[in-house]
């Protein structure tokens, strides 16, 4: 299928899902027991692209790993900026089906509401996982040529990312003297809770929340294996 046709089809689906996004909590934060990090990695072999999705589940209180699953397969959807979810969802769904434990919340290495059409991977995937989601990006996705404001150099400092008078996400400094990350609601969660949860999952080993960092590390392991 030609790219223009794919973009038309993908855009239609994103726009249909957007009214169903709720940037408010559908859970009680003190009831959260398990949280999961999700990340993907890709590589090419003989002209074909393959990928792996790794999901790492940790105990929200102790931060101990309680389950790890992954999926693997050939990637058939081309990379199109702004439509990454359609490339990644088949592997995400395949990995999630292998979970024997059910996380209360999923954190993605990628964007959620901070997206051209407010439908980044964390937001889009929520409809298939049926759980609240958070987007955690290492780099900034510039939308409508709007830059972010650098937060103060202290742990927990943040600045809202405002585009067309709407808050899309936050630039969050999780660690002093380390560059910020870019967080956004995925779905069924508000931005204040998103910020609190991300900060509660950061330790001295990384600026990323623990489950996202562990999922990222796991993708490197699986890529080497395959």
TrEMBL record:
<feature type="binding site">
    <location>
        <position position="39"/>
    </location>
    <ligand>
        <name>Mg(2+)</name>
    </ligand>
</feature>
<keyword id="KW-0479">Metal-binding</keyword>
<comment type="function">
    <text>DNA repair enzyme involved in the repair of deaminated bases. Selectively cleaves double-stranded DNA at the second phosphodiester bond 3' to a deoxyinosine leaving behind the intact lesion on the nicked DNA.</text>
</comment>
<keyword id="KW-0963">Cytoplasm</keyword>
<keyword id="KW-0540">Nuclease</keyword>
<keyword id="KW-0227">DNA damage</keyword>
<dbReference type="InterPro" id="IPR007581">
    <property type="entry name" value="Endonuclease-V"/>
</dbReference>
<dbReference type="Pfam" id="PF04493">
    <property type="entry name" value="Endonuclease_5"/>
</dbReference>
<comment type="similarity">
    <text>Belongs to the endonuclease V family.</text>
</comment>
<dbReference type="GO" id="GO:0043737">
    <property type="term" value="F:deoxyribonuclease V activity"/>
</dbReference>
<keyword id="KW-0234">DNA repair</keyword>
<keyword id="KW-0378">Hydrolase</keyword>
<protein>
    <recommendedName>
        <fullName>Endonuclease V</fullName>
        <ecNumber>3.1.21.7</ecNumber>
    </recommendedName>
</protein>
<feature type="site" description="Interaction with target DNA">
    <location>
        <position position="79"/>
    </location>
</feature>
<keyword id="KW-0255">Endonuclease</keyword>
<keyword id="KW-0460">Magnesium</keyword>
<feature type="binding site">
    <location>
        <position position="109"/>
    </location>
    <ligand>
        <name>Mg(2+)</name>
    </ligand>
</feature>
């Amino acid at each position: 299928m030609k790219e223009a046709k794919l973009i038309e089809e993908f855009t239609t689906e994103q726009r249909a899902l957007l009214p169903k996004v709720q940037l408010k909590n559908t859970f009680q934060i003190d009831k959260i027991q398990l949280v999961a990090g999700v990340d993907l990695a890709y590589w090419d072999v003989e002209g074909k692209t393959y990928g792996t999705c790794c999901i790492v589940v940790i105990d929200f209180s102790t931060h101990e790993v309680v389950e790890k699953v992954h999926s693997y397969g050939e990637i058939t959807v081309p990379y199109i900026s702004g439509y990454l979810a359609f490339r990644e969802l088949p592997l995400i769904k395949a990995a999630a089906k292998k979970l024997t434990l059910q996380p209360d919340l999923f954190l993605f290495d990628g964007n959620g509401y901070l997206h051209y059409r407010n439908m980044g991977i964390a937001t889009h995937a929520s409809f298939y996982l049926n759980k609240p989601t958070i987007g955690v990006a290492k780099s900034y996705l510039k939308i409508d040529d709007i830059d972010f404001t650098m937060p103060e150099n202290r742990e927990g400092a943040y600045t809202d990312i405002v585009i067309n008078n709407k808050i899309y996400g936050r630039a969050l400094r999780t660690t002093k003297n380390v560059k910020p990350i870019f967080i956004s609601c995925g779905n069924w969660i508000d931005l204040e809770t998103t910020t609190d949860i991300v900060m509660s999952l950061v330790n001295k080993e990384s600026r990323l929340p623990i489950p996202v960092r562990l999922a990222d590390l796991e993708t490197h392991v699986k890529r080497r294996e395959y």
